[in-house]
Hints:
The complex is a heterodimer.
Chain A: H1 2-19, H2 26-48, H3 55-58, H4 63-98, H5 113-142
Helix pairs in contact in A: 1-2, 2-5, 4-5
Chain B: H1 6-22, H2 27-42, H3 47-59, H4 66-79, H5 82-94, H6 100-116, H7 119-136, H8 141-153, H9 162-171, H10 175-203, H11 213-216, H12 220-246, H13 252-269, H14 275-308, H15 311-320, H16 325-343, H17 346-364, H18 368-384, H19 390-398, H20 407-430, H21 433-440
Helix pairs in contact in B: 1-2, 1-15, 2-14, 3-14, 4-13, 4-14, 5-6, 5-12, 6-7, 6-8, 6-10, 7-8, 7-19, 8-20, 9-17, 10-18, 10-20, 10-21, 12-13, 14-17, 15-17, 16-17, 16-18, 17-18, 18-20, 19-20
Amino acid sequence: MAPARCSSSCDSFLMRYLFSKPTVWAFDISYMIGGSIMLLGMAWVTVRRDQVRVDIIYTRYSRKLKVIVDSVLNIVLFFPLYIMLIQRAIPRAIYSFTNQEFSEVGFWRPLLWPYRWMMVVALIMWVLAALVWVIKDLSSLRKGEEL
Amino acid sequence: MIDASPEIVTVVMITLLILLVGSGFPLGLALGGVALIAGILFFGPAIFSLFYDRLFGVTSNYTFLAVPLFIFMGIMVEKSGVSKQLFDTLYLWLGGLRGGLAVATIWFGTILAATVGVIAASVTMLGLIALPSMLQRGYSKELSTGACCAGGSLGILIPPSIMLIFYGPMANISVGKLFMAAFPAGFLLSALYTTYILVRCKMRPLEAPVLPLEERNVPMRHKLYLLATGLLPTVVLILAVLGSIFLGIAAPTEAAAVGALAATIMVAAYRRLNFRVIKETCFATAGTFSMVFIVVVGATFFTSIFLGLGCGEVVNSFVLGAPGGKWGALLVIMFIIFVLGMLIDWMGIVLIMIPIVTPIATQVGFDPLWFSMMIIVNLQMSFISPPFAYAIFFLKAVTTPEQGIDSGHIIRGAVPYIGMIIIALTLMAFFPEIVTWLPGQMIR
């Protein structure tokens, strides 16, 4: 996950300096960089288990129940949704590359495929990050370890 | 694919959401999960294309980009170490007043709010800086903790607050206008809190002893120096950011970028800028930003399915069915938001409820800007009202055992401020100009 961290922090640093210069490319660059930080950061947040929860009841669970709730819901809800999303994202990224799709929102009209590929990469990293936790949790549960 | 009436879909989606969120599954993933289930059941597999486009749209939203920049600015201001100095300054100037320290806490919260914009951060900071010095000076536990909760909650109201940046695109209101409307609303609350503290201290002088003379006896020149170095840079920073939005020089995102740069310069001026600080700030910014956005992405999926299946109309007719015309509808909405505010944090409320209730308000003829301010001020109330008050939890987390503070003290301290917020809401209901005047003066 280190690359994700580095790239996102470098990005946010770069972004600040690019912003105050109003040029044609500022708009596209800024949303692309912003989007990259956000998407890549998701994997990082998942690795650190920093997600926002409504923890009124959750904090009272036993360690075992926490693991079960997280793992089961991850498998039932999180993975199908985002794996399907990746499956949609890859053809779009390929299409974007082969057809040389341009961005339509600004004046500069840069090529869009790097950004679309970035989305694919970020989503895959996010799912992997969650997968690591689920496997780790379940294996510790099987061994009956108390973490 | 199942054909079902919107009423059934609404009930199914809301029940599922309550169950999942209540189980403690991360909010963003729970929202996405409900969208997934409802989408597959009632829409079919075509929803994944919709989700992909939504994801692309959310990540490339220009207004949202103000969020990381304001977070960056807030963390930078925190790293500059200016907050401690800020409190010391206020403390010196207000120390002679009965209850002055509690007033200083509220004002401190008000000024900090403008740089922090996240409730957890400002309540925590007040608890660490202001609370110990109040207790040390013999202020009652209720008075000091109440001031910390109320002052800290202002963080999400007074611009530039992150919540308003999310609120704008959700309700189709310009973020700049929201900022300008929230400014007077925040100051109204701050003034009401101050009045309350002063009146209370007048009536019960024992709760808030005056600062001993020897501590107050500081030469005027020193006081002015502290004011210039402690208060001025922060205030100038905030006014520069808000002013450029007000005068129409910069969009919120650009103003945020300038603010981030200015905050970095400020840290440099306090001689605390080094590579480590920058690195830590960047990482913390990226972390917070993505943490919020996991929820945003989930909520976008959820609302697009929810509204796409016509559930918006179901909620709409439910709310409009309330007796008392448009004011009855307003009360119902306010009540729903208030209850939700006690249970889930503002992110969930703004991202889920705003796209649903805003059309209702427009339909019955409320000014959208005024309506949004009512909701936002109402949210303030839910942060400090027990049993599930975020401000109280955060404050409890930073108290030390020696201070001997239990939740009871904090709750007794915070409850009177709920009354103040209700007064503010009533004032705003009868005099909408309080919030609509300043945005109207904006140069476009």
